[in-house]
Amino acid sequence: MNVVVTGGAGFIGSHTVDALIARGDRVVVLDDFRTGKRANLAQHAGTDRLTIVECDVSHGIFAALAGLSIDRIVHLAAQVSVVSSVANPLVDMSVNYGGTLHVLEYAKAMGVKKVVFASSAAVYGDVPPALIPVHEDAPRAPLSPYGIDKYASELALDYYAAVHGVPTTWFRFFNVYGERQDPSSPYSGVISIFADRARRGAPLTIFGDGSQTRDFVYVGDVVRAVLAGLADGNSRVVANVGTGAEITVRGLAELIVSLCGGTSEIAHAAARSGEIAKSCAAVDRLRDAFGVVAQMPLADGLRRTLAI
């Protein structure tokens, strides 16, 4: 396949590129390098299977891909911070929803065979405890511009598939973690931030009381789902990508501190706007439709992430 990966120099994107090249595909990475890093792709230097094009997807992708034959697109480029989306909702809309529309317009015009989109568990909002683990047909009630724009993008994918015949699949990622997640970035997940501080024996700060739960899924399991989604079929299908297990943020912090030697203190700060109380994925559809089951236990994935 000739596959475009938007945001391909980022955390999940670079792991996706690794897997695509390993199976023999040719990959075009589109990335504006605001948060992505060329170092994440340095292992492919010299290969003729990778082309890197500096491009802001929210400004369109026709020029960046001119003269190239593209079979499929993995759309990962995004503004990924809930906090930033609350502070700058117009920017979030332009990057997240606008970027998706640019990808879909290209796919429609060029006859792309499949678009796989990275959506988010944020589309569900604060799910009542009775609906946890949350299924894909649960009500969507996002609590942030980030969640709103991810859900709007899902509606756009369904529209382009139904009306314009663009095959689309989208995955609602839960909390993804793993190697290459940058702890110095305000866009990073809690695991990379906790891990960085625990390695140094610095205090870990939990926003809120720590009773909020999350479903943490290892990046390698996420990539297996993405590659399964690129196959023919399963158009207009959405699936959660998680483990089906939840842990409190306090429990996560304690586990990471323990793995790092147990010297860091755990502190608390005020809860942040737009964050949800409980999150855990129902993963039946991921298994049944795509043949993917998350395989990495949290403690083992943390050891890999921590390189211990």
Describe the structure.
By secondary structure, the protein is of the alpha/beta class. It has one domain (2-177, 217-243, 281-295): Rossmann fold (3-Layer(aba) Sandwich). 35% of the residues lie in helices and 18% in strands. It has 9 helices and 13 strands. Strands 3-2-1-4-5-6-11 form a 7-stranded parallel sheet, sandwiched between helices. A two-stranded parallel ribbon has the order 7-10. Strand 5 (114-120), helix 4 (145-164) and strand 6 (168-173) form a beta-alpha-beta unit. Helix 5 (190-199) runs parallel beside helix 7. The longest helix has 22 residues, at 89-110. The protein is globular. The mean pLDDT is 95.
Summed up, what is this model?
This protein has 9 helices and 13 strands. The chain has 308 residues and is an alpha/beta fold.
What distance separates the N and C termini? 36 Å
Return residue spans where pLDDT drops below 50 for at least 5 consecutive residues: none
Q: State the fourth-level CATH superfamily.
A: NAD(P)-binding Rossmann-like Domain
Order of helices and strands: EHEEEHHEHEEHEEEHEEHEHH
Name of the top-level CATH class:
Alpha Beta
- Which bin fits the share of residues in helices? 25-40%
Strand runs, count? 13
